Amino acid sequence: MRDIASAAGVNAALVIRYFGSKEELFLETMRLNIDDEPLLDVPIESFGARFVEVVLSTGDIRGVYLALVRGSGERRIAERLREVHENALVAPLRARLSGPDADLRARMAAAAVGGLLYSLWVVGDEALAHDRPELVARYGTIVQQIITPEA
């Protein structure tokens, strides 16, 4: 806490006053939202690849995701991980979908993208990350199949 306060140019007591504990400070910094704007300007037929590209290129996602996954054994950190998953992955998908099973399709696609993030950033599958344009295209096709309702 002292190092953080020093870096911020404030007294450690002030940090404790506003956040209460290291865990509270950590939780406050572990928030993430994806900018919906790049997701709104593509037709739904090409949304899958765009969503994968946006998730992989949004700078804050990797750090927040890894910190929350690593700390998810703690109840409150696990709750924040679920909140970030809901806000950063499920909600942008759900906002573009319609139909009676839109929520389920959004959740399934978010789970697929979450698995991709796990493979890339937790497992460190370098072979998967080798050709990013192909990864985005192929994974985008998977996400597109999940979000496109069957006729």
Automatic annotation (TrEMBL):
According to UniProt, the name of this protein is TetR family transcriptional regulator
Keywords (alphabetical) are: DNA-binding
- What is this organism's lineage? Bacteria, Bacillati, Actinomycetota, Actinomycetes, Pseudonocardiales
Q: Which domain of life is it from?
A: Bacteria
In terms of InterPro entries, this protein maps to: Homeodomain-like_sf, HTH_TetR, Tet_transcr_reg_TetR-rel_C_sf, TetR_C_16
Keyword DNA-binding: yes or no? yes
Domain HTH tetR-type per the UniProt entry, residue ranges:
1-37
Keyword DNA-binding attributed? yes
